[in-house]
């Protein structure tokens, strides 16, 4: 029973230290800029194609492996999301000060929006850089 308690304590200590260290190591990598372009769908078409470009930068003092950039949609965009990848693969080591650019395309259903209106995704998307091994 004593060995089990010791093992449990070591596991707890490791998890605590991992969370503290992961928090310190997670800073310094962020999305510097992202932009998008779209064409308004012509009636009766209601599918809006949105091309995006996002730039991730490593502002740490050491290299970091960026696994992917992940887009989080707000409720408005998520309800209208039809097609595309919300996770854009990067899979590169970024040296300090280095950037990587990813591009992709999403499709949203704009049915029900007033004619001539488009979904402006910049109000409904947040980005996150998934790093290895710390997200």
Describe the structure.
With 135 residues, the chain is of the alpha+beta class. The chain contains two helices and seven strands; from the N terminus they run αβββαββββ. It has helices at 2-25, 75-80; strands at 29-38, 47-58, 64-73, 81-84, 87-94, 99-109, 125-132. The longest helix is centred in the N-terminal third of the chain and has 24 residues, at 2-25. The model has no long low-confidence stretch (mean pLDDT 83).
Observed structural traits:
135 residues; alpha+beta; four-stranded antiparallel beta sheet; 2 helices; 22% helix
Alpha-beta classification: alpha+beta
DSSP, total strands:
7
Give the percentage of residues in beta strands: over 45%
Distance between the termini: 35 Å
Can you count the helices? 2
| Overall 3D form | elongated
Which runs of at least 5 residues are low in confidence (pLDDT < 50)?
A: none
Order of helices and strands: HEEEHEEEE
Radius of gyration: 20 Å
Profile the largest sheet: 4 strands, antiparallel
- Overall mean confidence score, pLDDT: 83
Arrangement of strands in the largest sheet:
1-2-6-4
| Helical amount | 10-25%
